[in-house]
Write a structure and sequence with these properties.
This protein has about 290 residues and is of the alpha/beta class. The protein is about 45% helix and about 20% strand. The protein folds into two domains: about 80 residues, no CATH class; about 190 residues, no CATH class. The chain contains nine helices and nine strands. Strands 1-9-8-2-5-3-4 form a seven-stranded mixed beta sheet. A two-stranded antiparallel sheet has the order 6-7. The N and C termini lie close together (about 10 Å). The N terminus is likely disordered.
Length: about 290
């Protein structure tokens, strides 16, 4: 699967999503975890290409032996299922214990006049940050994919309205560029995914686990063009009902040429991403050949 074949949508239809939310209003999430690990994940491993890319990730990127890589492929899919279940549990009104490491960095920037950026990837469960990492003074504008399922977008809107978060959809007519510019001009916060490509986006090559990998250049270019502060935010599942949010400032020389700023900033981000994945290797949810 190439980087441009990713659909950017949550599996299932609106009826399935509504049923899952209704179930999670009353049932313990652990029942859903058990059902997914016993019945859903084995079927996915048999039918989906994701088992091959996940296995290669553990076998060749982390250097695990064949049996350990196979086991972690199963664990990885179980943890991904739990992340999806937890997202719908939040829609159903359930709460999770959340610890924030580095909250002072967020508060400091949120208290200033200028806008700043949050950068994340498809590891852990970043959506949890939308209900915990919030500012009374600034709106967080989350850049999301326009083709996401309508039911998921509706649930996000309903939840995010309570925490001063709005969404900017990446659509084909590129109106999102004006929305991002306005948000930053207003001194607000923009949150970018930095590990998925859409369309013909330019890339910046970084060494990631000792191998060259392409990351979308756009978020790093936006920061460099405006000289913005940037925080990496990774939300990792650290217990059955607990998440830890890691907030890390990314440093770069704002007086250097723009190309060098992009290189430094992307390198700092990828270094932080690699650090978290070494801590939580099973929570990598890019199910395609990322290093292709």
């Amino acid at each position: 699967m190439s980087r441009r074949e990713w659909a950017g949508t949550t599996y299932g239809n609106s009826r399935m999503h509504s049923w899952l939310i209704a179930f999670l209003r009353h049932a313990d999430v652990r029942l859903a975890y058990l059902f997914a690990s016993v019945f859903v994940v084995p079927v996915c491993l048999l039918l989906n290409y994701s088992r091959k890319t996940a296995y290669r990730y553990f076998r060749h990127i982390h250097g695990y032996g064949p049996l350990k890589a196979a086991w972690f492929t199963y664990v990885n899919h179980c943890q991904f299922a739990q992340a999806v279940i937890d997202k719908f549990a939040m829609y159903a009104g359930r709460k999770f214990d959340v610890e924030i490491v580095g909250m002072d960095s967020f508060r400091d920037l949120a208290g200033r006049e200028d806008g700043f950026l949050l950068m994340s990837s498809h590891i852990g469960n970043y959506e949890i940050a939308g209900y915990s990492l919030v500012s009374d003074r600034k709106t967080i504008h989350a850049v999301v994919y326009a083709d996401e399922k309508a039911s998921v977008m509706a649930n996000r809107n309903s939840m995010f309205e309570k925490t001063n978060i709005s969404m900017i959809a990446l659509d084909a007519d590129m109106n999102y560029l004006f929305e991002i510019d306005k948000a930053l001009s207003d001194g607000d916060i923009v949150s970018f995914p930095t590990d998925r490509f859409m369309g013909q986006a330019k890339s910046v090559e970084c060494m990631f686990f000792g191998r060259a990998a392409g990351f979308p250049q756009g978020p790093f270019r936006v920061a460099a063009m405006r000289g913005l502060d940037v925080l990496a935010v990774n939300v990792m599942k650290t217990g059955l009902k607990k998440y830890t949010i890691y907030v890390t400032p990314l440093h770069y020389d704002r007086n250097s040429p723009r190309k060098e700023q992009i290189r430094q900033l992307s390198g700092a981000y990828v270094s932080e991403l690699e650090k978290r994945l070494r801590q939580y290797p099973a929570q990598w949810y890019n199910f395609f050949d990322f290093w292709q």
